[in-house]
Amino acid sequence: MKRLAIYIIAAALPCLTMSRANAQDARLKPGAVIRFGLPPRDSLYVGTLARVTPDSLILLRCSACNRLGYARAEVNQLAVASPYNRGDRTLAGLGLGALIGGGLGYLSAASCHGGDRCDLAALAVPFGGIAGAILGAAVGFMT
C-alpha cells in the first residue's frame, strides 16, 4: 500500500513542475497582456504585446508608456497575464483532489486489520475522494 502511494506521488510531482517550467515563454506571444517594470524608479506599465524578438519587446498599445519598443535588457520585471480561466483551474483541482483524497482513503482503509473501528473502513475511499475533490476545487478556484 505504501508503494502505491509513493508511485502516485512520484507520478504527480513531475506533472506539476513541468506545467510551470515553460509557462513564461509559452505565454509571451502577440496579443498577450504584459506588465513590466523599468528602472530607475521601477515604474510598472501594462501593455498589449505586438511582437517579441530575442532582444526586444514591441507593444501594440500602452497608454502610460512613452514609446512602444523596449530592449529586454532595460526591462527588470515582466509578468504575463494568465490566459487560463477560473473554471479550468477549478476542474483541475477537483480532479487532482479527488484522486489524492481517494488514494489516501484507500490507504486508510487498507491499513485497517479488523475490529470495531474497521466496520466503516470501506467508506474511507469515497469520502476521501469527495473531501479531496471539494478541497481541490476550492483551492483551484481561489488561485
Task: Please state how the strands of the largest beta sheet are arranged side by side.
Answer: 4-3-2-1-5
* Largest sheet descriptor: 5 strands, antiparallel
Count every beta strand, where a strand is a DSSP E run of 2 or more residues: 5
Unreliable parts: 13-24
Mean pLDDT: 79
Radius of gyration: 23 Å
- Assess the beta-strand content as a share of residues: 15-25%
Explain what this protein looks like in three dimensions.
This protein is an alpha+beta fold and 143 residues long. The chain contains four helices and five strands; from the N terminus they run ααβββββαα. It has helices spanning 2-21, 23-27, 86-110, 124-142, and strands spanning 33-38, 43-53, 56-61, 69-71, 77-80. Helix 3 packs antiparallel against helix 4. It starts with a helix and ends with a helix.
Report a brief summary of the structure.
This protein is an alpha+beta fold. Helices cover 48% and strands 21% of the residues. The protein has 4 helices and 5 strands.
List the helices and strands and how they pair.
Elements: H1 2-21, H2 23-27, E1 33-38, E2 43-53, E3 56-61, E4 69-71, E5 77-80, H3 86-110, H4 124-142
Antiparallel strand pairs: 1-2, 1-5, 2-3, 3-4
Helix pairs in contact: 3-4
Output the keywords.
143 residues, alpha+beta, five-stranded antiparallel sheet, 4 helices, 5 strands, 21% strand
